[in-house]
Amino acid sequence: MSNPLPEAGAVTGAHLFAGQSTASAAAAETVHNAGTISARLDRIPATRSIWKLVALLALGYFFEIYDLLYSGYVAPGLVKSGILTPATGGLFGTTGVASFIAALFSGLFIGTMCCGFLADRFGRRGIFTWSLIWYAAANLIMAMQTTAFGLNFWRFVVGIGIGVEMVTIGTYLTEIVPKQIRGRAFALAQAVGFCAVPVVAFISSALVPRTVFGMEGWRMVVIIGCHGALFVWWIRRHLPESPRWLALKGRYAEADRIMCDLEAKARKEYGRELPAPAAPEPVVAKSSFRDLWVRPYGKRTTMMTVFNVCQTVGYYGFANWVPSMLVKQGITVTTSLMYSSLIAIAAPLGPLLGLLIADRFERKHVIVTMAAVNIVCGLVFSQARDALLLISMGICLTLAGNIISYSYHAYQTELFPTGIRARAVGFVYSWSRFSAIFTAFIISSTLHSFGVTGVFLMISAAMALVMLAIGVFGPRTRNVALESISR
């Protein structure tokens, strides 16, 4: 299939830059071609082949979530083995459970802050693959450790790989699907990904209290997660590079080949000719870190930085500390793991609800509403003692947190242009990892001194700031072309 001709009267880069330098004309042509590729992609219907790409990325997300969230579930086993202690000696002690959680988020901070640019420079597909292999291998080494230092160091290394992966998957997903299904694509990816939560919860419940084949149960939980590396090359074979990224890099022939393949599959599945692409939107050609601070991106960068610092307190303040908080309320370790497993069943349900609402409501409105639900349910949870009420409020907190999660992962990737998307997402997202480093220690101290009520008062304050930042300063993005949002 040949490259589509421009609409009658359209101004091509060559015409627009006639008389200017060859370099300027080439840059104009690249920008024009990038706009054409985006217009062709946005007109593709939500066919089976498009959803297949989403599902493949979701498989990578499953293993990412498994590795990210097993911390709280294996913590009792780490204490039982004598490697870590339940309490932290000093604010930044290195032998408590809090240090294990902080090591992960320290790695996540480095991975997102310092390495997010890799996907902008080398492409989405390759970085997606190698970052998954990185943290799978590091997890295998971590599972063999017998000291707090070794455990925490390799958890830090794992975090770097996961941090890069988190930035890359979100960027990749935003660019590979048409605009009318971006919200649902993130909802489906996170629904598959969050299936890892009940999986790791039930595996931990079964293995952590036991010794399996002469090996402590927590080690088996970690090793099981390493199997994601077995799927990575299979996933890679079926994933194309982002055509938007290729076109912006001047690799238009490659982008066109991918688009022709996507269009041919969509045409066959659609059963008729595809709609004509809209006129190409002007593409914002940004490529450096300083571009994050020019209008309108400076305000968006600040808004999402504040949001990410605060949402982490609410999300991981609950997700990573559920078993510990239940124990603090007088429930035994075994029973707390059982309750936590029941609560974890709700993890994929939030994104599944998103398949119904994600592209019907503005993402900023969904985030604000769910933050309010988080405040109410958290305060009720902190006062509950009845098993049914504890589990019910835990499920509501999990649903609200995961609806916020798929919404903001889509939202923050939409706010920046293709040339700096991974770098920008990495920068703003890194502050959630930075926040989590200190949140682990602060929640540990608050839980010890003020109990579960004190923890949820802190969480409520953070969620109130989330509502303020997104509700007041967030732009609308639903069913809007990425290029239009970028302008």
CATH domain topology = Growth Hormone, Chain: A
List the total number of helices.
Answer: 21
Rg over CA atoms, rounded to whole Å, is 23 Å
The profile of the biggest β sheet is: 2 strands, antiparallel
Q: What's the β-strand tally?
A: 2
Q: What structural class do the secondary elements suggest? A: mainly alpha
Number of domains: 1
| Fourth CATH level, the homologous superfamily | MFS general substrate transporter like domains
Strand content: under 5%
What general outline do the C-alpha atoms trace?
globular
Q: Spell out the helices and strands N to C.
A: HHHHHHHHHEEHHHHHHHHHHHH
Residue-averaged pLDDT, rounded? 84
Can you name the CATH architecture? Answer: Up-down Bundle
Helix content: over 70%
Q: How widely separated are the two ends? A: 31 Å
Describe what this molecule looks like in 3D.
The protein has 487 residues and is mainly α. The protein has one domain (48-243, 291-486): Growth Hormone, Chain: A (Up-down Bundle), CATH 1.20.1250. 74% of the residues lie in helices and 1% in strands. It has helices at 13-16, 22-42, 48-80, 97-115, 117-122, 124-142, 148-176, 182-194, 196-207, 217-225, 228-237, 243-248, 252-270, 297-319, 322-328, 333-344, 349-357, 363-383, 387-414, 421-473, 482-486; strands at residues 211-212, 215-216. It has a two-stranded antiparallel sheet. A hairpin with a 2-residue loop joins strand 1 and strand 2 (215-216). Helix 3 packs antiparallel against helix 10 (217-225), helix 9 runs antiparallel to helix 16 (333-344) and helix 16 (333-344) packs across helix 19. The radius of gyration is 23 Å and the shape is globular. The two termini are 31 Å apart.
